[in-house]
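Recap slide: Oxidoreductase, sequence and predicted structure.
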Amino acid sequence: MSTQKFALITGATSGIGYELAKLFAQDGTNLIIVARNEDNLSQTATELRAINNITVHTITADLFEPGAANKVYEQAKELGVGIEYLVNDAGQGEWGRFFKTDLDREIDLVQLNIIALMSLTKYFLQDMVAQNSGRILNLASSLAKAPTPYMAVYAASKAFVLSFSEALVKELEETNVTVTALLPGATDTDFFHKAKAENTVTYKETSLYDPAEVAKGGYDAFLNGEATVQPGFKNKAQNTMSTLLPDGAVASNMEKQMVSSMEEDGKSEITHEASARERDSINIKNGGVNGDFKPHNLN
């Protein structure tokens, strides 16, 4: 097996995952990037290699599919490289009242946000503990601490990620392996498009975090072995309030952020280039119909 250190990153072609990949590349860490869209993977790999002449392998995988995490692990092992860092970034949401949304779509979200993340963590963590070295970064969310109407399944799935990660921190105290949970606030990525949430108050009327800023905060905390990180002052303040207020009050506050906006001239475009590219590729796959994203349409 190669002695070179590699980071494996899911969801690396857009948003926070893309910016994290760039940070690893800048530090000279070789990469294995994982996503579903082969064209986006290829373009992203080319961009990352140009940063610091690193080695970048790609794995095309649909983590909505049961068993896909095991296939990713096996393909990574076949490359004969050591995975020192694992970043579980891939995740999606679905906007709407739960009794109206599509159950199959939400089962897919649980598969992606929980089962795939848990499985990849299991596979690579066993190797890391055996070698007594490694770091894992799991993407949770500011909603992990906030019951969120109109994003009920997403928020609950991220509560799992946070609780799961914090439990592993305790289990691994006697090892040189660390787990960090990143809790970003609303960020300027293609998340809202995939979740059909582009008409919400949060998206149209509030200032979204820069993915590069969020990634840098998460990356630094990850390398320092911190248990959790919440980049941004507003994000920290919101999480503090979520801790202090009763859950019912938190849910009421979150509902106000997730309802449909009445603002006609609010935000409508992604400014983050890689995320805009991802959004465009989804629209092309769906015949140009924005907001009609089905998880298995993009192969």
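The CA atoms of residues 206 and 267 lie 9 Å apart.
The beta strands are 2-10, 30-35, 56-60, 81-88, 134-139, 177-182, 228-229.
(End of recap.)
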